[in-house]
Amino acid sequence: MNLEAASYKKNLSPNDGVLCRYDGQTFKVFPDLPGLHDNDIYTRYQSPSCMIWIGAIDHGVYSYNGTAFKLYDKTDRPDLLHRFGLQSALEDSKGRMWLGFSGGLFRLQGDLILNVTKNGPWD
To answer: How many domains does the chain have?
Structure first.
């Protein structure tokens, strides 16, 4: 899957940004989801399990399985919600998602984006 965060301007104003998939000839524009249109997207990551992870500034992180998007926006650090900015993502050999947000290191645990401190959780 080749997902691109692009300023695709067909029928859009100059400030509209959208998430698209380019198949080599045309762009497919994805549905208007909060944070994926009219927003900055700094990070896209395709995990070894073929999920695509997309950081949506001030919204959280989306996963995309090739068919549907799922938003992860719950965290044990609600003070960071107003500046959620995914800087990096990595799936480890155990299938855990590690997320580097502006504000620190986090790990996805179920539907919760859990802050990882010097005391963990590391397991």
So the answer is: 1
